[in-house]
Amino acid sequence: xxxxxxxxxxxxxxxxxxxxxxxxxxxxxxxxxxxxxxxxxxxxxxxxxxxxxxxxxxxxxxxxxxxxxxxxxxxxxxxxxxxxxxxxxxxxxxxxxxxxxxxxxxxxxxxxxxxxxxxxxxxxxxxxxxxxxxxxxxxxxxxxxxxxxxxxxxxxxxxxxxxxxxxxxxxxxxxxxxxxxxxxxxxxxxxxxxxxxxxxxxxxxxxxxxxxxxxxxxxxxxxxxxxxxxxxxxxxxxxxxxxxxxxxxxxxxxxxxxxxxxxxxxxxxxxxxxxxxxxxxxxxxxxxxxxxxxxxxxxxxxxxxxxxxxxxxxxxxxxxxxxxxxxxxxxxxxxxxxxxxxxxxxxxxxxxxxxxxxxxxxxxxxxxxxxxxxxxxxxxxxxxxxxxxxxxxxxxxxxxxxxxxxxxxx
Length: 410
Ligand SMILES: Cc1ncc(COP(=O)(O)O)c(C=O)c1O
Fold this sequence. Notes:
Layout lengths: L2 H9 L1 H8 L15 E4 L2 E5 L12 H14 L13 H14 L3 E5 L2 H12 L4 E6 L4 H11 L7 E5 L4 H10 L4 E7 L1 E2 L4 E2 L2 H9 L4 E6 L14 H4 L8 E5 L9 E5 L1 H10 L1 H4 L6 H39 L13 E2 L3 H13 L2 E2 L1 E3 L10 E3 L8 H17 L14
Parallel strand pairs: 2-13, 4-5, 4-6, 6-9, 9-10
Antiparallel strand pairs: 1-2, 3-11, 7-8, 10-11, 12-15, 14-15
Helix pairs in contact: 3-12, 4-12, 5-6, 7-8, 12-14
The structure holds pyridoxal-5'-phosphate (PLP).
């Protein structure tokens, strides 16, 4: 055995134990796509999906992808530098137009879009200032930039959503320029960015700019679903928006929006764009079809999501669940104990409802929760079933009473 086998074996101890105890909750194998699927032949309603408008399996979306397979197949065998199609460029132009930005660049994933954007914009004259609950793609882009020889930016963190803490970072930074990175909605807590106060802090500083990762706000916030900048009517104060096709847009892919020169600069600099294969055209076609739907009736689609989400929030809080910091359609059910989250997940899954547990190290110990995302694609019956089951198991596993579970005696 080499050292890598030893290392892997030791690192996997916790996962091995969870598997032996039959409570390992991840990598369940779906047998079809969409919110209504099956696992091991058993029907499942997925309440942890990010298919926020429920359009991933829309017949028009599938049809468009199938047509694109006929014309382009599934892969283009190279990066965008030598594998760009008219479909990529057309969608970039349409997205820029719909969001209201001068230019757009498509990446192969949202993760790559954020990593590439940060690495292209930050240099030794920059302080990157991050919310302390930032997504991995923001952290990884920052840490990779910090590892660039002779050109590393400074890094600072501010307390989650605190304009006061952000101002302190801006005031005490050691580099001339500041790149402040936030998210429109924080997906583990389901809370919106404290956007207006953070923007005021950024705007007071002539060398600070804001980058907003709106992966979870796209399609869910703003009247027409353009995201958090539409909701607060502040597009002109946010020079760079990054988003994804992996939630509302029914596929996979990253979106960068900004001024033409900024987008062109990233296009020519971002290693995660230049050195990774281009987005498959069937995926481009799926996203383009969902964009058609947003153009046609974004307001109606978003309103339906909000209606369902308001119903779910009221029902969950009436039952007595703690939804933490959530103020959006993402409503984590706080369990605050790992076993409560794991046991409830398993019991719900047995009964046909999937709620993925989020445990340490995804969140701090004592802040374990179940990921509950309401989407436009969930029916009234889906929601009633979820509520009934969650109340039953919330009582059985003492999530509702808050009492500690009895110690495990193996
Ligand atoms: C806030 C945020 N940014 C970026 C991403 C990455 O997006 P993608 O799945 O397109 O790589 C995610 C996905 O989970 C996310 O939650």
